[in-house]
Design goal:
Elements lengths: L13 H15 L8 H17 L2 H20 L7 H16 L7 H4 L1 H16 L16
């Protein structure tokens, strides 16, 4: 590993590493279908590879893909379970907000993603059957 390669970005990855594989696999699964254990494992492997052998630029490209999935879920018809989109959106948004504390241009580069995620999360939370934390609203009649 080069002495010039910055590893400071790795301090921001624990929550995304834990939360994103299952949520992203669910977002990639066909509508009204749960992702298989193999799909979740493949997503977990991809994240591990990015963290262990990747760069900050590669990691941010992956998070851009996740952002796109969340935005698509929020713009489309109500998913059977919007929980995965809420989890993924909140995790990536939190990650991108923390970039302000790191050296480099990561925070500036993710400004559009932060805006898109904020809007998508508002839409996802506004759905009648979803409460403020992404859980079914107990007041819902469904």
């Amino acid at each position: 590993m080069s002495a010039r390669r910055s590893l400071v970005w790795l301090g921001l990855t624990p929550e995304p590493e834990q939360e994103l594989p299952a949520a992203v696999a669910a977002l990639r699964a066909p509508a009204d279908d749960r992702p298989s254990a193999a799909k979740v494992a493949a997503e977990r492997h991809r994240v591990e590879r990015l963290v262990l052998r990747g760069t900050q630029a590669g990691w941010l490209r992956y998070l851009r893909e996740v952002t796109d999935l969340v935005v698509e879920a929020a713009a489309g018809a109500a998913p059977a379970d919007p929980g995965p989109a809420l989890v993924a959106g909140e995790v990536v948004l939190d990650h991108h907000r923390m970039l302000i504390g790191l050296p480099g241009a990561g925070y500036v580069r993710t400004a559009t993603q932060r805006r898109d995620l904020e809007r998508a999360l508002v839409r996802l939370r506004a759905r009648d059957d979803i409460g403020p934390a992404g859980h079914p609203d107990p007041r819902s009649t469904a």
